[in-house]
User: Which sequence fits this backbone?
């Protein structure tokens, strides 16, 4: 479930605990959770409602100024039923702490390696995990379209794969592009202790200049 940054912050600080959506059928269930702006958000309630019965209190709890503002936001797909969704923050995204943890034991490295090997084995486009990690390490902050093209991949599937690495705490999203997390840097150092190691910014700049000169 997608939330705007303002609403996600409101749920995190407790000032927002409702959302309204028009769906052909429910896309979530009570007790499920999702990540928004670095926090884990739990769905506490879910019910169909008549938009005309949305109250001023409902609107305020959903970060709107008035019921009419809520109804205006629901004008798209007006033929679909309206759902009133209860929300609460139940903690920070555990991936944040995981990303910062670069104190990897041999067992940690073995576990990460096995998970990556499993992703490679299930992939329809062949092994990709190490190549993507190395690429992100060499080109942090580069837009995903360029990274995908560098590997001969389409952007959509490339981003889906990076998300899988993010769930393991190995990468993090930047305002533009991605970077290896401290955990990802340490794993790659242990996994690929060769010339394919993550390069310094100066080395990356040199490579880019060589490519440009060519």
Assistant:
């Amino acid at each position: 479930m997608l939330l705007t940054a303002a609403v996600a912050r409101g749920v995190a600080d407790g000032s927002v605990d409702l959302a309204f959506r028009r769906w052909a059928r429910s896309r979530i269930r009570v007790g499920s959770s999702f990540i928004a702006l670095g926090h884990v958000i739990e769905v506490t309630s879910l019910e169909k409602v008549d938009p005309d019965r949305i109250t001023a209190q409902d609107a305020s709890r959903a970060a709107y100024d008035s019921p009419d503002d809520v109804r205006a936001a629901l004008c798209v797909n007006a033929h679909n039923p309206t759902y009133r969704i209860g929300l609460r923050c139940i903690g920070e995204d555990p991936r944040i702490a995981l990303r910062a943890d670069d104190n990897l034991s041999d067992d940690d490295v073995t576990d990460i390696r096995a998970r990556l090997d499993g992703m490679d084995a299930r992939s329809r486009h062949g092994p990709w995990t190490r190549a993507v990690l190395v690429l992100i390490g060499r080109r942090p902050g580069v837009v995903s379209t360029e990274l995908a093209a560098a590997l001969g991949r389409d952007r959509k599937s490339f981003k889906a794969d990076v998300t899988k690495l993010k769930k393991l705490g190995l990468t993090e999203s930047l305002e533009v592009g991605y970077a290896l997390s401290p955990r990802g840097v340490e794993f790659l150092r242990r996994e690929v202790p060769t010339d394919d190691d993550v390069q310094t910014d100066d080395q990356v700049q040199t490579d880019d200049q060589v490519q440009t000169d060519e």
